Every structure is written in structure tokens, then in C-alpha cells.
Task: structure prediction
Amino acid sequence: METSTKDKIREAIKKELLTFCKYYSPKSYEDWESEKDTYAFWLSERIWIDAFVSGEYSFIEDCIAEYIKYEDHTQTDDSNVPLSLRAILFDYFQHNSYAVIRALGKDFLSEVSFEEFFTKYNR
Result:
């Protein structure tokens, strides 16, 4: 496959994934870092898009496996958030406690549930 064809495929994938994003945009990291309540969501969407576009499917599969262990989320929900993106949000929630409590305006991680984190994302 020509490089230009691969680039076109990557752009098509990115364009389709962007239709599911609520926070990700071409804004720079520095612009979003200051927006404490939405930065975690912007970064999760960016990681999700980058993983698909670069073909890092094993990372996505690992996130989905951990998310399903947490609770069986294989059933359809009404959030319209793809399972792979929910799984990356869950991974972010598990591994970035400081950013999560900052995003939700809490003092301690014990005060935060993934459902609360996801609900805020899905508004």
C-alpha cells in the first residue's frame, strides 16, 4: 500500500472517530491542561483516536478487557459512547487519580466512582 493511501485511511478513521468526541479538538496540550474539569476527557479522546489511527489495537483490547472485568459492559447502553472509548476512559480513571479528582472537584479518590466520572463525561 502506498504511503498516501495509508495516510488517506488514517484520516478517514480519524474523521469518523471525531464524530464521537465531545472534547477532543486540535487545541494544543497547553490550552487544555488549564481546563481542569475537561482535560481528562480531552486527553482520553486523544489517546483513543491516536491508538486507532496508529494501529495500537493491543492497547485498546487491554483497556476493554479491564473494563469488562470491572463490570459486564458488553450490553448496549444508551450513551452512544463506543465501548472502546468507554474502556479508555475507565483506564484513565484507574491510572490518573489526581486528574480524576481534579476533574470532579473532589478531595479524595475514595469519593469518586467511575460512574460519576463517566456521567460527567457524557453530559
